[in-house]
Structures are given as structure tokens and as C-alpha cells.
């Protein structure tokens, strides 16, 4: 599955949701809806390394999955769909933890300005993970303490939104 950068996603223009091309949305830094999922096992989190073919932040580590919902797609349905598409994960119970907004430079003159529905799921390490190589090049479980230490020592290895979630919203997420 490759990303269609001309596909339209909902974005706010003059206070109204309007279909805008995905690449144009990021070039203009338009505010748009998004969905992110974090998967926990005790004090460990499943993280993924984005495929090198991704048009922004390739090769960087991020939370389990994130995406833009289709027009009129329920955020939870979107999260379930994207877990399957990116990591081959099915059957987790997702819990809505936050609705947050951030704006971040993601490189190559692209800006993510997202209003995110963030979900958390709990699992054990026997969780079946089958990454889509067009989306994910690697994945692993890491303790939150080790993750925060890694971000501190090598922040450029992580996506901007993931760092924002962990640094600004960890309490809200109850991780």
C-alpha cells in the first residue's frame, strides 16, 4: 500500500471542514483531524519505525499507528482500520484517552497541524504483529523509562508528534 498524496482528507479552512489533498494539507500546515493509537503491556509500549518510503519522517520511531480518517469516518473505526493496515493487529479493545491539538514541522517544508483522537489499548507480548512493509520497517516493545531516555539522547530518531504526546500528554494518557 503506497500513500496517495493527492487523496483528499478533511481540513479546516475558514472554520469549515473541506476536502483538501493530503500533500497540500501538509504543505499549507492546515489543521486537520487525525487518529493515533498507543499499545501498552504493563510499563512497556509497542513502537514502530516508519518505512523509509514514507513521504515525511521516514525511518523515525513513533507510536503503534497514526493516520488521517476518511471523510465521515468514526475516529475509533479509523484507529481499528489503521492498526490492521499498518501492523496487522486485530481484536484489541481501544480506549479513547484524549482529544488534543498540536502543530509540528515534520521536515521538507511540511507541517502537521492535527486535532488528534488518541486511543490506548492494552495487550500482552504474545500480540500478533505483522507489519506492512510499505508502512513499517521495524517494531519493538520498550519500557517508558527507556523510551524517554532514548528520546532524550537521540530526539531526531522519533517523530515530532510522538515526542509531543509523551512529553506534554503522558499524564492525560495515564500511561
Taking pLDDT < 50 over at least 5 consecutive residues as the criterion, the unreliable ranges are none
Mean pLDDT across every amino acid position: 92
- CATH architect. name: Alpha-Beta Complex
Order of helices and strands: EEHEEEEHEEEHHH
Strand content: 35-45%
Mass-distribution shape: globular
Could you explain the architecture of this structure?
- This protein has 175 residues and is α+β, with helices and mostly antiparallel strands.
- Helices cover 25% and strands 39% of the residues.
- The protein is built from five helices and nine strands.
- The longest helix is centred in the middle third of the chain and has 13 residues, at 75-87.
Short recap of the structure:
The protein is an alpha+beta fold and 175 residues long. It has helices at residues 22-28, 75-87, 144-153, 160-168, 170-173, and strands spanning 8-13, 16-21, 31-41, 44-50, 61-62, 65-67, 95-107, 110-122, 136-143. The protein contains 5 helices and 9 strands; from the N terminus they run E-E-H-E-E-E-E-H-E-E-E-H-H-H.
Sum up the structure in keywords.
two-stranded antiparallel sheet, 175 residues, alpha+beta, seven-stranded mixed sheet, Nucleoside Triphosphate Pyrophosphohydrolase, single chain, globular
Furnish the topology, listing elements before pairings.
Blueprint: E1 8-13, E2 16-21, H1 22-28, E3 31-41, E4 44-50, E5 61-62, E6 65-67, H2 75-87, E7 95-107, E8 110-122, E9 136-143, H3 144-153, H4 160-168, H5 170-173
Parallel strand pairs: 3-8
Antiparallel strand pairs: 1-2, 3-4, 3-6, 4-5, 4-9, 7-8
Amino acid at each position: 500500500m503506497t500513500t496517495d498524496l493527492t487523496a483528499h482528507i478533511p481540513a479546516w479552512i475558514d472554520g469549515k471542514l473541506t476536502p483538501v489533498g493530503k500533500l497540500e494539507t501538509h504543505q499549507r500546515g492546515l489543521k486537520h483531524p487525525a487518529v493515533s493509537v498507543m499499545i501498552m503491556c504493563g510499563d512497556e509500549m509497542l513502537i514502530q519505525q516508519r518505512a523509509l518510503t514514507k513521504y515525511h519522517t521516514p525511518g523515525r520511531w513513533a507510536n503503534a499507528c497514526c493516520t488521517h480518517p476518511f471523510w465521515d469516518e468514526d475516529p475509533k473505526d479509523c484507529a481499528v482500520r489503521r492498526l490492521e493496515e499498518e501492523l496487522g493487529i486485530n481484536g484489541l479493545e481501544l480506549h479513547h484517552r484524549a482529544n488534543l491539538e498540536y502543530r509540528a514541522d515534520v521536515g521538507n517544508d511540511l507541517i502537521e497541524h492535527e486535532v488528534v483522537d488518541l486511543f490506548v489499548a492494552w495487550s500482552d507480548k504474545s500480540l500478533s504483529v505483522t507489519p506492512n512493509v510499505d508502512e513499517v520497517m521495524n517494531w519493538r516493545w520498550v519500557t517508558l523509562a527507556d523510551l524517554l531516555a532514548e528520546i532524550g539522547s537521540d530526539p531526531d530518531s522519533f517523530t515530532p508528534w510522538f515526542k509531543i504526546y509523551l512529553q506534554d500528554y503522558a499524564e492525560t494518557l495515564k500511561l
